[in-house]
Design goal:
heterodimer, A: 10 helices, B: mainly alpha, 2 domains, 3-stranded antiparallel sheet, 3 strands
Chain lengths: 421, 387
C-alpha cells in the first residue's frame, strides 16, 4: 500500500483479520452470543430462532436407517443414491421417555449443503466435519464403493455424529436452517439457497484470492496452524498404518479359517481323532473376526475434525484483508491541475482518508472481537478434541482387550480339543 | 528349547523326547542318544558342501565305546536311508529333508536353510534310533561310528552298479505289469496314505501362509507404536495417554514376533516332516506291491512252464515267505507309525494353541495395566491421582 502524499503520515495498516459475512453489514450479528437480540439490518437475525432453542431443551438426534433409492438427477439421468432417516426425539424430563417429534429422509448432498451454509454464516466457529464422500482408507478387499454396506454404516455413524455435534454447539444449535433440516423435508433446499449464502461463499473465495500475507499475524493462530498441520499429518499416517495393520490381521484370521476346513476333511479319514479335529476346526472358524470389529471410527472422526479445523485456521491465520488502495488517487493528485483544483482534491482525499480510517478502526474492533470469539471457540474445540481423542484411545484399548479375551477363549478351546485326542 | 546345547545326551527336540518316552517298549531303556550340530562349510576345487557333527552317546554292548563323534554330509544321510530302505523294504523309514531348496518351502525369516536342514537331519537319526528294528541296522552303526575316511570305503561295498541297474530295469517291468490283487487291508492303507498326504500338504501350505501373513502383520505393526509416540510429542494433555498406548503397542508387537518365531520353529517343521512321510509311505506301498508282483509273475511262469518246475516251485515258496514277512513287517510298523503320527501332530497343534493363549494373555495384561492408569476417564469417576 503506498502513501498517497508525503504529508499524509498516518500509517494505514490492514486489519489483522477481517470477519467475513455480509460484505456491507455493520458488526456481524453472527459474532457473539447475543444472536437472539441481534439488531439487524441484515445480519442473519432472521435465521436464529427464539422458539425451539435446542440447547435448552433436551433432544436426541439419530440417523437410524439407510436406504437405497433411485431417482433422477439434475441432468435427468437415473442415479442410485442412499437416503438416511433422521429422527429427532425430545426428552421433557431427564429420565423421562423420549417422544419422536420429527423424522425425515436426507441424502448426503443435503448434509453437505447444510454444512457449507454453516461454514459461510459462522466463519469463526469450528463446524464439525462430515464423513468422507468416498472411502479414503480402503479396507481389505473393499473397493471404494459408496454402496458397500460397511461404508454406508460408517457414513451413517459419521452423519449422526455431525448432527449431534451441531446440536450441542452453543451457537450453531440455534440456527434456523439447522432446525428446518431436522423438521422440514420438502422445500428445505430451496430455503437454504434463498439465503443467498452461495453468493457469500463466492465473494469469500474472491476475497481469499485477493489476500496477501499479513504483517503481524496473531501468534496464537500461527502456532495453532502449525500444530494442526503436524497433527493432521501424524493422524493421517496413523490411520493409514492402522488400516494396513487391520488389513493384515484380517488376512491372518482368514487363513486360520482354512485350518477349520482342512481339519474337517482330515477328521473324515482319521477315526480316532475325528471328533477332536472337527471341534478344533470349528473353533478356528469362529476366530475369524468380522471386518468392522477391526475398525475404529472415532479416530477417523477426530482426524476429519482436525482437517476441517486446519482449513479454517489457515483462513484465520492468513486472514482476509480488505485493502483499499490509494493508488487510484495518486493520478488525481499528480495530474495536470490548477492549484485550486488540487486543493479541493486534497480536501476530498483527506475526507476519504478520514472515512477510511474510521472504517479501519471499526474493522479493527470488529477484527479483535472476531479474534476473541474465534479464540473462545477454538479453546472449546481444543477441550472437546482432547476429551474425544482420549476417549477414542481408551476405547481402542478396550477393543484390544476384548480381542485378547476372545483369542484366549478360542485358543484355549482349541488346545483342549487337541489335548483330548 | 535349547537348540545349541553342547551336551550329546540332550535330544534335539522335546517332541522327540516325548516320543521316546511314550513309544519305546521299555521307556527307561533308551540307550542311544544322537545329536546333529555344528554345520561347517567345506570348499574344494570340485564342490562346496556342508558337514555336520554327529555325536552319539550309547550304553549298548555292541558299540565299541560309549561316545562317538563323526562328521557327515547330506550325501551320507542319503546313503544311509537308501541302505535302510533296501534292507527293510516294507518298514517305514523316516524322511530326510529335501535335497534342493524349493522356493517357499523354507521359512526364511529366522532359519537359514542350513539350520532347518540340520534340525531335520537330527530328527531323522533320532527316529531311526527309536525304531525297534532299524536301530540295530549295521549300516546305521557304521554311519554313527566310522571315522570319516572309512565311511566312503564302506559305502562302496554295497551291491555293484550293474546289479543295481539290473534290479531297476526289472522293477520297472514289474511296475508296468502292476499288482493283481492287493489284499484289502493294504488297499485301505493305500487309500489312507493318499488322503493323508493330501491333507498334510494342505496343512503345510496353510501354516506357511499363516507365517507369511503374520510376518507382514508384524512388519506393519512395528510402525504403530512409534506413530503414537510421535503424536504424543505434539500434545500436552494427551501426551500421557498417547505414550501409554505407544508402549502397549510396542510390547504387543514384540509378543507377536515371539509367537511367530514359535510357530516357525515348532509347528512348521513337524507338519513338513509329515508331508515328507507321506512320500515315504507311498514308497513303502510301492515296494510291498513290487514284492507281490514278483511273486505273481513267478507263479504265472510256473503255470506255463512244463519243465524245471521243481526249481520254480522252490523260488515261488521263497517269494511267498518273502511276501508274508513283508506284509507282517508293514502291518506292525504301520500301527506304530499311526500312533506316533497322532501324538506328534496333536501335541504340535496343542503346543501351538498354548503359545497363542499365552500370547493373548500377555497382550491382555499389557492393555489392562494401561487402562488402570487411565482410570479417571475409563471408570467415569472423578479424577484420582495417577499412579
Amino acid at each position: 500500500m503506498e502513501q498517497a502524499a508525503p504529508d499524509l503520515e498516518r500509517p494505514l495498516q490492514p486489519a489483522p483479520l477481517e470477519p467475513l459475512g455480509h460484505p456491507d453489514a455493520g458488526p456481524e450479528a453472527a459474532v457473539g452470543e447475543e444472536a437472539e437480540g441481534a439488531p439487524d439490518e441484515e445480519g442473519p437475525g432472521d435465521r436464529t430462532m427464539t422458539e425451539n432453542n435446542f440447547c435448552l431443551k433436551k433432544i436426541e438426534i439419530s440417523v437410524s436407517e439407510a436406504e437405497k433409492r433411485t431417482g433422477r438427477n439434475a441432468m435427468n439421468m437415473q442415479e442410485t443414491y442412499t437416503a438416511y432417516l433422521v429422527e429427532t426425539r425430545s426428552v421433557e424430563h431427564i429420565d423421562g421417555p423420549s417422544v419422536l417429534t420429527d423424522s425425515l429422509w436426507r441424502r448426503y448432498s443435503e448434509f453437505e449443503l447444510l454444512r457449507n451454509y454453516l461454514l459461510v454464516y459462522y466463519p469463526h466457529i469450528v463446524v464439525p466435519p462430515l464423513p468422507e464422500k468416498r472411502a479414503e482408507f480402503v479396507w481389505h478387499k473393499l473397493s471404494a464403493d459408496n454402496m458397500d454396506p460397511d461404508f454406508v454404516e460408517r457414513r451413517r455413524i459419521g452423519l449422526e455424529n455431525f448432527l449431534l455435534r451441531v446440536a450441542s454447539h452453543p451457537i450453531l444449535c440455534r440456527d434456523k436452517i439447522f432446525y428446518l433440516f431436522l423438521t422440514q423435508e420438502g422445500n428445505w433446499k430451496e430455503i437454504v439457497n434463498e439465503t443467498g449464502f452461495q453468493l457469500k461463499a463466492d465473494s469469500r473465495l474472491k476475497a481469499l484470492n485477493a489476500t496477501f500475507r499479513v504483517k503481524n499475524p496473531d501468534k496464537r493462530f500461527t502456532e495453532l496452524k502449525h500444530y494442526s498441520d503436524e497433527l493432521q499429518s501424524v493422524i493421517s499416517h496413523l490411520l493409514r498404518v492402522r488400516a494396513r495393520v487391520a488389513d493384515r490381521l484380517y488376512g491372518v484370521y482368514k487363513v486360520h479359517g482354512n485350518y477349520g476346513r482342512v481339519f474337517s476333511e482330515w477328521s473324515a479319514i482319521e477315526k480316532e481323532m475325528g471328533d477332536g479335529l472337527q471341534s478344533a476346526g470349528h473353533h478356528m472358524d469362529v476366530a475369524v473376526c468380522r471386518k468392522h470389529e477391526l475398525m475404529q471410527y472415532d479416530l477417523e472422526m477426530a482426524a476429519q475434525d482436525l482437517a476441517s479445523k486446519k482449513q479454517q485456521c489457515e483462513e484465520l491465520a492468513t486472514g482476509t484483508v480488505r485493502t483499499f488502495s490509494l493508488k487510484g488517487m495518486t493520478t488525481k493528485l499528480f495530474g495536470q491541475e490548477t492549484p485550486e483544483q488540487r486543493e479541493s482534491r486534497i480536501k476530498v482525499l483527506e475526507e476519504q482518508i478520514s472515512e477510511g480510517e474510521q472504517q479501519l478502526k471499526a474493522k479493527n474492533l470488529e477484527g479483535r472481537e472476531f479474534v476473541k470469539n474465534a479464540w473462545a471457540d477454538i479453546e472449546r474445540f481444543k477441550e472437546q478434541k482432547n476429551r474425544d481423542l482420549k476417549e477414542a484411545l481408551i476405547s481402542y484399548a478396550v477393543m484390544q482387550i476384548s480381542m485378547c479375551k476372545k483369542g484366549i477363549q478360542v485358543w484355549t478351546n482349541a488346545k483342549e480339543c487337541f489335548s483330548k485326542m | 528349547m535349547d537348540m545349541n546345547s553342547l551336551s550329546p545326551t540332550m535330544p534335539t527336540s522335546p517332541l522327540s523326547m516325548i516320543n521316546q518316552v511314550k513309544f519305546e517298549d521299555e521307556p527307561d531303556l533308551k540307550d542311544l542318544f544322537i545329536t546333529v550340530d555344528d554345520p561347517e562349510s567345506h570348499v574344494t576345487t570340485l564342490e562346496t558342501f556342508v558337514t555336520y557333527r554327529v555325536a552319539t552317546q550309547t550304553s549298548r554292548g555292541e558299540f565299541d565305546s560309549s561316545e562317538f563323534e563323526v562328521r557327515r554330509r547330506y550325501q551320507d544321510f542319503l546313503w544311509l536311508k537308501g541302505r535302510l530302505e533296501e534292507a527293510h523294504p516294507t518298514l517305514i523309514v523316516p524322511p530326510l529333508p529335501e535335497k534342493f531348496v524349493v522356493k517357499g518351502v523354507v521359512e526364511r525369516f529366522n532359519d537359514s536353510f542350513i539350520e532347518t536342514r540340520r534340525r531335520a537331519l537330527s530328527t531323522f537319526l533320532t527316529r531311526v534310533a527309536d525304531h525297534p528294528t532299524l536301530t540295530f541296522s549295521a549300516d546305521f552303526k557304521v554311519f554313527l561310528t566310522a571315522p570319516d575316511g572309512e565311511l566312503s570305503a564302506h559305502k562302496k561295498q554295497g551291491p555293484g552298479l550293474l546289479s543295481k541297474v539290473g534290479r531297476t530295469v526289472r522293477a520297472a517291468a514289474l511296475a508296468l505289469r502292476g499288482v493283481r490283487g492287493r489284499p484289502e487291508e493294504f488297499e485301505a492303507m493305500s487309500g489312507f496314505i493318499e488322503a493323508f498326504s493330501q491333507k498334510m500338504g494342505l496343512l503345510d501350505k496353510v501354516s506357511q501362509r499363516i507365517c507369511k501373513e503374520e510376518r507382514e502383520y508384524v512388519d506393519e505393526m512395528k510402525e504403530l507404536g512409534p506413530t503414537h509416540a510421535l503424536w504424543a510429542e505434539l500434545e500436552d494433555d494427551l501426551a500421557d495417554t498417547l505414550g501409554g498406548v505407544a508402549s502397549c503397542l510396542d510390547r504387543c508387537c514384540q509378543a507377536t514376533e515371539r509367537r511367530l518365531r514359535g510357530l516357525a520353529e515348532a509347528l512348521l517343521p513337524v507338519l513338513h516332516e509329515y508331508v515328507l512321510y507321506g512320500e515315504m509311505l507311498t514308497g513303502v506301498m510301492k515296494r510291498r506291491d513290487h514284492i507281490q508282483a514278483e511273486l505273481e509273475s513267478k507263479v504265472e511262469a510256473l503255470t506255463y512252464k512244463k519243465a524245471d518246475t521243481e526249481l520254480l516251485r522252490e523260488e515261488v515258496g521263497k517269494l511267498e515267505d518273502k511276501l508274508e514277512c513283508a506284509n507282517t513287517a508293514l502291518r506292525a510298523d504301520w500301527e506304530r507309525w499311526r500312533q506316533s503320527m497322532r501324538l506328534d501332530l496333536t501335541s504340535a497343534f496343542a503346543a501351538s494353541a498354548e503359545r497363542n493363549v499365552r500370547y493373548y494373555e500377555q497382550c491382555l495384561a499389557t492393555w489392562e495395566s494401561f487402562l488402570a492408569t487411565q482410570s479417571d476417564l475409563y471408570a467415569k469417576e472423578p479424577p484420582e491421582d495417577k499412579p
